[in-house]
Amino acid sequence: MDMPLQEIIFYAFSAVMVLAAIMVITVRNPVYAALFLVLTFFTAAAIWMLLEAEFLAIVLVLVYVGAVMVLFLFVVMMLDINLVPLKEGFIRFLPLGVLVALVMAAELLTVLWGRDRFGTGQFPVPEAHPQGYSNTAALGEKLYTDYLLPFEVAGVLLLVAIVAATALTLRRRAGIKTQNPARQVRVRRDERVRLVKMKPRSNADGREA
Description:
mainly alpha
């Protein structure tokens, strides 16, 4: 039985994504690890495109690749972090890491063996949408109608978190000079500029300086 082209593309991108994810945690150079993570995000975005979820694919590329990974590369390349102290406790935490790896492997095997719950029959390939269908428009309509209240609550919580983070960062500390924008706005010229009139001085030959 011939495999459809879409399924071939899916398995190709999945293989690339798995290999790139493995390289992220195995390479020694942190810059290479970041670049492999970028490749992982791109291939995941391609899989989202196969599922006709173009909004999620674009957000994955713009937010994670365009912002988060650039920030990560800036931290790695500009701050010159000493990785030697971070690797000193590797042997001490190795048993815990092996235990976590075994638990994750057991979960993956459970998913693979549970064909009756996680097989392709339970999650068939979605039908193609008609021409002119917009995933972004459908997502926005669903978000601002059926899930308007949870969306607004999440926005308020994020706003409170931003205000709290700003307040914690701008707390007063002893010995640190801070600015007061209110006083700077109310300042007058007489308080900052002083005109001084001085008498001219004469040089040795009698001319004014």
